[in-house]
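Researcher: Final request for today, and then I'll write up notes for the group meeting. The sequence and the SMILES for zinc ion follow.
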Amino acid sequence: MSQDVLSELVALSNRIGDPANDFVILGEGNTSTRCDAETFYVKASGTELRTIKAEGMVRVRFETVLKLLDAEGVDDQVMKDTLAAASVDAGGKRPSVETVMHAFLLQLEGVSFVAHTHPTVVNAITCAKDGQQAFVGRLFPDEIVCCGVAPIWVPYTDPGIDLARQVRDQVRRYVEEHGLRPKVILMQNHGMIALGATLHLRRGDEMRSLPLEAFFLDYRKQDRRPGEFVAGVSFADAAPGLRIYKLSKRFDQLAELRNGIRHSRTVDEVTRKEGEAAILWFKQVLGQ
Ligand SMILES: [Zn+2]
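Model: Predicted protein-zinc ion complex:
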């Protein structure tokens, strides 16, 4: 099992790190997966998702890392020492600075993989003034299926323990409010986290896709037929072309918003300019 999930995590990471996707550049982003009840794999610091191999993942103990969430006086040294102590292979690679956040998210029901990225298309909005408003509400049924009933918005925080605590608090609030776990976490001026994705399984010419959470049936038990292997993983774009379709719809929504802003007397000049810049950027991306 641990070798299986490890190779799946590596394949997922390579796919996310593919420069064609524009999800991350160079050493950015990090991924993780649950290994067993006590441990999980997380990307080692100083590795690149694009080229990462099994050796680039570190196996870490949940319990040791999760204690940091409620501990007092967690500075850089405490963080460093705890991460080293939590690693199953002593003296191995250093786990990612976001390991605590991954540990927390992997504890959520139905979450077996966590991927944190900095996609340009998403950050064009998370970095904008009033970016949070652009993500409020849902436009399409498929948006709800893929991204959940609402996103989580995490105000800008330093990476590491502060971000892990912010994410924990926001997730708890969300679960209280909506009665289910989030699928997407957006982080102001930073990026996004996808929880739960679609797996594409292949056996010979046969191909099938299923939600990641449906793949894991039970402890050490997966919905994998003999000879089948994981050919790919995708996020929120399970149907071909959906990503660009959703983007163009978002563009329409932004254009509408722009018109509203243009004719509003209460909007200041900065917001107006930023709205215009976002529209220009989307136009470029969509090649319109
Ligand atoms: Zn990041």
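Model: Residues 116, 118, 190-191 surround zinc ion (CB under 6 Å). Residues 235-246 have pLDDT under 50 and may be disordered.
Researcher: Thanks, that's everything.
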